[in-house]
Automatic annotation (TrEMBL):
Keywords: ATP-binding, Helicase, Hydrolase, Nucleotide-binding
PANTHER family given in the database record: ATP-DEPENDENT RNA HELICASE YFML-RELATED, DEAD-BOX ATP-DEPENDENT RNA HELICASE 47, MITOCHONDRIAL
Residues annotated as domain Helicase ATP-binding: 25-195
Compositional bias (Basic residues): 426-443
Organism encoding this protein: Weissella bombi
The name this protein goes by in its record: Superfamily II DNA and RNA helicase
Family membership: Belongs to the DEAD box helicase family.
Entry's Gene Ontology molecular function annotations: ATP binding; hydrolase activity; RNA helicase activity; RNA strand annealing activity
Basic and acidic residues bias locations: 392-401
All copies of domain Helicase C-terminal, residue ranges: 216-366
Length: 443
């Protein structure tokens, strides 16, 4: 590793590399083409950032191209890579669909050394003659199995046709195995396989199944929204169901954001920002966000709809419990769904009945200096304890005592029959009518 990187790592207290970071460092630095596999949340972006950036030459044009399957992942990768590129005085440019293309073209004229983009926008710029890649030294495919499928694979093919240089290093990264025949045929080379998926790493992700009828799943989310310091990404199989649920939660005044393919890049970026800041309780999305997105310390992932296969479950679950931290995956469904889920994934799944209290890792203690708040909190705790023991809130108990006092004061009067009371009221009304209009006597 470059000594400048080591100095920065030491300053932030980073001491241990993950298995994938250690395994790919030397082959990448030597210019080898690799097919690297590792579980989600194990630092794959930094795994290719640290070895490759020191090999680039400042002010020598576009030398490294990183492709990602979504705008969100491309922007996230841009932020991570730029942090380290600044140390070496290298420029990074993001080329994603939905963003202002004119601004991107203006930045391209400065010939940044590192490009991070989505296949659609990159192939568009190449097709229009706006992007030349003759100086390229390395091509990275992040989430390669996703990029080498269907229409995206055709865009990758167009990009590679513009490069067409056997000396260009190609590195495939992901958590799911790539079809080697497709990769070898497209890039006309053999790849060094580096598989770290079965290397033991510390993890604290719990997997739970919550039996829930389909018409009760929205209410489950509403109940979970009342829990403090709790956030979750909620995954759906269809955009239609996502939007129905979003409307329900909005009506229930639950703070949430949506991340849907087809929305503008500005809208999607705003949703992610709100969720990362904690102003949104839930981030509702389809599997567009199941790939590579990093939400630091995300407490939980919820499968509103069960994924269609184990691979998708793995990628969804990878949004929580990243880098060995605690995480929780909750899946909704019926008995049939539970059987399918157990066949789908080889993890221990606990069945949970009812909505339990979830203690989040993000909970923070109250500052000791805030005495007023502490007193209020202590008072509130006493009220909650009293409620749990008696079933009556303190304020309700006070009201009950007041009512008892009034009743006691009333009961201290002599007992009067209903007939006598009505006669007395009738007499008082007759006397009032008789004296109406007469001047009051002076004493």
């Amino acid at each position: 590793m470059d000594s400048r990187f080591e100095e920065r790592l030491t300053s932030v207290g980073f001491t241990t590399l993950t298995p994938i970071q250690e395994a790919v460092a030397e082959p990448l630095a030597e210019g080898k083409s690799i097919d690297a596999l590792a579980p989600t949340g194990t630092g794959k972006t930094l795994a290719f950032t640290w070895p490759l950036l020191p090999e680039l030459v400042p002010d020598d044009g576009e030398q490294l191209l990183i492709l990602a399957p979504s705008q969100e992942l491309a922007m996230q990768t841009t932020r991570v890579v730029r942090d380290w590129a600044n140390v070496l005085s290298l420029k990074v440019l993001s080329l994603t669909g939905g963003a202002n293309v004119k601004h991107q073209l203006d930045r391209l004229k400065k010939h940044p050394e590192i490009l991070v983009g989505t296949p659609g926008r990159v192939s568009e710029l190449i097709g229009n003659g706006k992007l030349k890649l003759k100086r390229l030294r390395t091509l990275i495919l992040d989430e390669a199995d996703e990029l080498l499928r269907d229409d995206t694979a055709n865009q990758i093919d167009q990009i590679w046709d513009a490069i067409d240089d056997e000396d260009v290093q190609v590195a495939l990264f992901g958590a799911t195995e790539v079809d080697t025949t497709i990769a070898s045929g497209l890039f006309e080379r053999d790849f060094l396989r580096i598989d770290q998926r079965h290397v033991e790493i510390p993890t604290a992700i719990k997997h739970e199944f919550w039996p829930t009828a389909r018409d009760q799943r929205q209410k489950r989310l509403r109940q979970l929204a009342t829990q403090k310091h709790f956030q979750a990404m909620v995954f759906f199989n269809t955009t239609k169901q996502l939007k129905i649920t979003a409307s329900f939660l909005a009506h229930e005044h639950v703070a949430m954001a949506t991340l849907v393919r087809g929305d503008s890049s500005t809208t999607r970026a705003k949703s992610l920002t709100n969720f990362r800041k904690g102003t949104a309780k839930f981030l509702l999305t389809t599997d567009v966000a199941a790939r590579g997105l990093d939400i630091p310390d995300l407490p939980a992932v919820i499968n509103f709809d069960l994924p269609r296969d184990g691979e998708t479950y793995t990628h969804r679950a990878g949004r929580t419990g990243r880098m060995g931290k605690a995480g929780l995956v909750i899946s909704f469904g019926n008995d049939h769904d539970l059987r399918d889920l157990k066949k789908m994934v080889a993890v221990e799944i606990k069945t949970v009945s009812g909505v339990k209290t979830i203690v989040s890792q993000k909970a923070t203690p109250v500052a000791k200096t805030d005495k007023t708040y502490q007193q209020k909190k202590h008072s509130g705790n006493q009220q909650r304890v009293a409620t749990q023991k008696t079933g009556v809130r303190v304020e309700d108990k006070d009201n009950t005592q007041s009512k008892k006092t009034v009743k006691k004061a009333t009961s201290s009067q002599p007992n009067v029959s209903r007939q006598d009371r009505l006669a007395k009221e009738k007499h008082a009304k007759r006397k009032h009518r008789k004296n109406k209009g007469k001047p009051k006597s002076k004493h």
